[in-house]
Amino acid sequence: MNMLKERRNYENQLLPCDFHNYFTMGKVPAYMVVHDLIKLKIKDGTYPVSEFLPTEPELEKIYKVSRTTIRTAMEILKDEGLVEIRQGRGTIVLDSRAIQSLNKVTSVTECLRNRGFDVRTKSMYIDVIHATERLGKELNQPIGTPIARIQRIQLINEKPIAIIKDYLPYALVPNIEQFTNKFNGLYEFLEQQYHLEIESADDKIFAKSADFAESEMLAVLPGTALLCIQRICYKGTEPIFSDDVCILGDQYELSISSNGRNK
């Protein structure tokens, strides 16, 4: 869809306050401007999940554009999974965020797939480094031990969503570099190829702002909110690998269930 490709070329390069200026200056098509204004209102909650958007005539008045422009913008939002167009009823806002439950050990890739996204890996790079003090402690390995490092960008529906780095003792995954670009989900791959069963995990979760390099990899503005998950996975009591994931904060959510209180 050409209009979707056009929008991707400039998306995330404009601050919200720039939209009206670009519209009046004719630098981007009107449907792209309307699309981004509505998307912004979906993200900030002005148009809540499970609620209907204003009707087409109302949107025409709000944005001062034609019915065709509104319908084109709606089609793009539908293709992105942000809305559902219900004939005769209107357009309803969908919950497009992937929600990962931390009550079970699931990967980001598995979570995204379970939400119905088309997940693909881009720019995978596998090399062998030597355990630093931090990695040695996390993986229970002597400093200097060969460690397989897997770096990649994860896409959903061809749009970057996460930067993922994984570290594994090379002795557990000999010759893993020959599988570069041959898998998307690491957990499944390790279970099938190396018979490494993941039984538990410890997670450290925090938020940060995307730096320049991260913003370039994820095609967003520097300073965009990222959700970061640092995980160590275990088989029994033995750590078998660590994850370092940075994912777009407005696209992902974590769910945790707790019982009892520590008094």
CATH-defined architecture of the largest domain? 3-Layer(aba) Sandwich
Contiguous uncertain segments of 5+ residues: 1-20
Described by strand count, sense and barrel closure, the largest sheet is:
6 strands, antiparallel
Question: Based on CA inertia axes, which overall geometry fits?
Answer: elongated
CATH homologous superfamily placement of the largest domain = Chorismate lyase-like
Number of separate structural domains: 2
Instruction: Give the helix tally.
Output: 9
Brief overview, please?
With 263 residues, this protein is α+β, with helices and mostly antiparallel strands.
Descriptive report:
This protein has 263 residues and is of the alpha+beta class. It has two domains: 2-93, Arc Repressor Mutant, subunit A; 98-255, Chorismate lyase, CATH 3.40.1410. The chain has helices at 2-10, 19-25, 30-43, 56-63, 67-79, 108-114, 133-139, 186-193, 212-218; strands at 83-86, 90-93, 98-101, 119-130, 146-156, 159-169, 200-209, 225-235, 238-248, 252-255. The strands form three sheets. A six-stranded antiparallel β-sheet has the order 4-5-6-9-8-7. Helix 2 packs antiparallel against helix 3 (30-43) and helix 3 packs across helix 5. The protein is elongated. It starts with a helix and ends in an 8-residue tail after the last strand. 27% of the residues are buried. Residues 28-96 form the HTH gntR-type domain.
